[in-house]
Amino acid sequence: MSGSMRAEVTERTVRADLVVVGAGIAGLTAALWAARDGLRVVVLNKGPRWNASSREQPTSTFYAQGGVAVVMPGVQGPEGPDSVDRHLADTIAAGAGLTDPTASGLILADGWASVSALIGWGADFDRDADGALLRTREGGHTRRRIIHAGGDATGAAIQRALHEAVRHPGHDARDAPPIRFLDDTIATAVLLDDGRAVGVACLRAGRAVSVLAPTVLLATGGTGHLYAATTNPAGSTGDGIALALRAGAQVADLEFIQFHPTMLYTESARGRRTLISEAVRGEGGRLVDVEGRPVTEGVHPMGDLAPRDVVADAVQTAIELTGHPCVYLDVSGVVDFEDRFPTVTAGVRAAGLDPAGGRIPVVPGAHYLCGGVVTDESARTAVDGLLAAGEVARTGLHGANRLASNSLLEGLVMGRRAAAVAVGRRGLPMPEAGGRRFEQPVPILERGLLQDMMTRQVALRRSASGLAAAADTIAGAPRRMAESVRDVEDAALTLTASAVVAAAAARTESRGAHVRTDFPLTGDVAESRVFRIVDGELREARPAAVPG
Ligand code: FAD
Ligand code: SIN
């Protein structure tokens, strides 16, 4: 059995049928479905134990605002009938040539069943007086199909419902074994036996723990803290990308880091910043520059509700043309702004600003990783027994630019499919030994330095010279043992950054969320770039077949 990092005999071994790394929408959905089928599930969460009253949470899921994009059968909106095919067409249009239509069609078609299960678990989406689900619009959607909860507190409602479902699983799961949480526990390596994933090595309060299971699911979320400022919570440090790469899995489309057009601007801010939901524009908010000129005029027929890459680019252009550090979201036309958007209102107020003034200062902010660990339509990676779901995975749904509010839906659908795979693998023979981790120094860049470099050279606009400078900085990262949680995260950020930079340098065109100032045109042929580690080196690879 092999792994990476630290040389110490494991002090404690836990056994399960499925180990899930991550307690957001993808991880908890998988855990709930797997437990329902009788699997012993262990959920690892590097953040603190769920506490419904805490305002800081370790998952992006908790912070989701706009909602879940889903087509409800038989519902017709003001723009005309909706359908999964129309949702797919919008997803493909936003994805700038790299959306996989087959995989995406299958995911979107499963959307309503997955959302219905979530509602069954207690997620309380907003409804009108007749009890019908309210729906809003966001960028790139030609229909109002985004359901939401608590106005703009959708993620908090979902996270709460999932945790409640874990505590009170309901009738059909009465005999199911309880889901076991290991909170404040960081996964440091996927344990392998003869190329098969057999568990996860972890650090818990400074001590080594191994969780052995025939199926390992990575549901670790995103990579926002590659950058100095982001909409993501503190734990979005690309751990799952690093865990997968070191285990031998493939990653793809990592150059497509989506910058949300409207992150709250506050001078010199670092770390997690408040998002101003795209739904604000769906309800009448308008983007203007410092002189009051419309930011997206003449840029795209959908204007402020164009796909996210288009709007983020228009915002950046306006900032560069005016020399002013931000643009403004004019919310004076939004009916009952504070009631409809309580999360945004609280975030703006917390920054010492008053949304009642009508203009909220915004900039593009690092928000979402469109690519990730390559999986098939069942969440399987190229490593036997290793699955990935949620933001960490690359299913082909998001292409070069994710359609707004498609990721919560993807987490629900793919979490359920991952559980189904784990159920099929129950009872596979497991090695008796409980995991020994091998000492191996890894490159670790100091976090602030890495974030400043990525913000300068690998953000919304990239060029060969900037990417080469970034690659040099990463190549010079000192190698040392990852001794602490912070080290493990910084090592993950360093490896993930190197993969993002390699992918961005290899893509000599502009497409979707990836803009090259030296290659402004989009090529005729759209191809994903796949990378994996071979002989200790990150290399571009052709996609390998995933195990059937
Ligand atoms: P997360 O919810 O991020 O959970 C990751 C989990 O992994 C956490 O529990 C974390 O502790 C754990 N973890 C990570 N690394 C390790 C490790 N090494 N060891 C142990 N545990 C680990 N999408 C939409 O569809 N609609 C929206 O309205 C929307 N709004 C958003 C608003 C904001 C502010 C943000 C940041 C994102 C938004 N998104 C939205 C995107 C969406 O919320 C995320 O893509 C999605 O929630 C990711 O879910 P996940 O389960 O993959 O990961
Ligand atoms: C938002 O509310 O604008 C975020 C939606 C998303 O990222 O999907």
TrEMBL record:
The keyword Magnesium does not apply. It is an enzyme of class 1 (oxidoreductase). Keywords: FAD, Flavoprotein, Oxidoreductase, Pyridine nucleotide biosynthesis. Its EC number is 1.4.3.16. GO terms for cellular component: cytoplasm. Residues 450-524 form the Fumarate reductase/succinate dehydrogenase flavoprotein-like C-terminal domain. GO terms for biological process: 'de novo' NAD+ biosynthetic process from L-aspartate. Catalyzes the oxidation of L-aspartate to iminoaspartate, the first step in the de novo biosynthesis of NAD(+). This is L-aspartate oxidase. It comes from Gordonia lacunae.
